[in-house]
Amino acid sequence: MKSFSPRKAALAVVAAFSLAACQAPAKKPEAPVNSTAAAKPDTRVIQRELGDGLYEMAWTPKALYVASAQAFKNVNGGLLYRLDPATLATTGETHTDLKNFGMAVDPDGSVFYTTNSLDGAIAKVDAESGKILQRLQFSEKAKEGYPYGAREIFWHEGKLYVGGVGDPGVIWVVDAKTLKLTKTIKNAGKWVTGIIWSPVTDRIYAANGGGEVLVINPHTQKIEKRWTVGDGKEYLLLNLAEDPATGRLFVTDNSKAKTTLVFDERSGKVIHRIDGDALGIKFNEKRNELYISQRESKKVLQLDATSYAVKNSWSFSSSPNSLLVSPDGQTLYVTLKQDFNKDDTTKGKDSLVRIALK
């Protein structure tokens, strides 16, 4: 990982992924653009240039939402794009005063949540109108004075678990209905990144930049164990996925080790590694597949989840970042990031990709 100031280092981890706002009138659907990344365009792939600062996505019964931080230079606030999940056409926009990064959806689909990472806040959003309903600002600040970044957000049994990018990091536990902070889990290691819940062990897993996977009891809100690779090497763990049928936890490292680690949840031991840079990761139970975004290699991999063999891959001219699998398991969505210039501008607008799986 390159050397950064503490502020830029925190931003880099927040960006690598995990107050009032107004709803703009719905735009007329815009025509999507087919991918031309390969010599022969894959007809299953739709790629559309959308806007600056795209990060995570949320699937709701009403629409596909995409969180946008907008540009970082001379641009205040962000956007929440509302899209048709089949065509990627824009059906609405919510302009927000803060920048948007992570996303989570309430199981009933009526609301979703987004992290305002640079401001250490989260927001609840109405899934039908796109309007901001509530906002919660966290109080933790780094010694330099800027807020802890709220990176990844995860819904579990009426609570939101939000990873705080700080040193030491924290995990905020929030009542999803009232958006009130109920607990702060402290001493969570450097830079809390990915968060997931396992039905296999009934535990929350949280990754951090110190190379730990935290095992958290959701009933007591206490850290019970800290898994490490145990080989003496440095790891900056990022995003998580799980195969509940086999009790395997997949953890990416895009910076230090450039690998995907496979933990056995019952033993806490690493049982396999998938070599190569790895940022976003999703497990598709319906197809028994893994999807990995490779930001440096500019690829998205489709792997057999049992053998880890690569079944397919898609190459792009910009860098794949966040992933989302549709509820029926037959569609994969990807945000593509443009590189930054030295003055914090980018080389172009970010894109969204829809891949019909087969």
Question: Can you walk me through this structure?
Answer:
The two termini are about 35 Å apart. This protein has one helix at about 5-15; strands spanning about 20-25, 35, 45-50, 55-60, 65-70, 80-85, 90-95, 105, 110-115, 120-125, 130-135, 150-155, 160-165, 170-175, 180-185, 190-200, 205-210, 215, 220-225, 240-245, 250-255, 260-265, 270-275, 280-285, 290-295, 300-305, 310-315, 320-325, 330-335, 350-355. The chain is built from 1 helix and 30 strands. The protein has about 350 residues and is mostly beta strands. Helix content is about 5%, strand content about 50%. The longest helix is centred in the first third of the chain and has 10 residues, at about 5-15. The strands form 7 sheets. A 5-stranded antiparallel beta sheet has the order 1-7-6-5-4, with no helix packed on it. The radius of gyration is 19 Å and the shape is globular. A hairpin with a 5-residue loop joins β28 (about 320-325) and β29.
Mean pLDDT score: 90
Q: Any idea what the shape is?
A: globular
Uncertain segments? 1-9, 17-38
Biggest beta sheet summary: 5 strands, antiparallel
Strand order within the widest sheet? 1-7-6-5-4
Question: What's the end-to-end separation, in Å?
Answer: 36 Å
Residue share in β-strands: over 45%
Q: Give the helix/strand class.
A: mainly beta
Tally of helical runs: 1
Radius of gyration: 19 Å
The helix content, as a percent range, equals under 10%
**Strands, total number:** 30
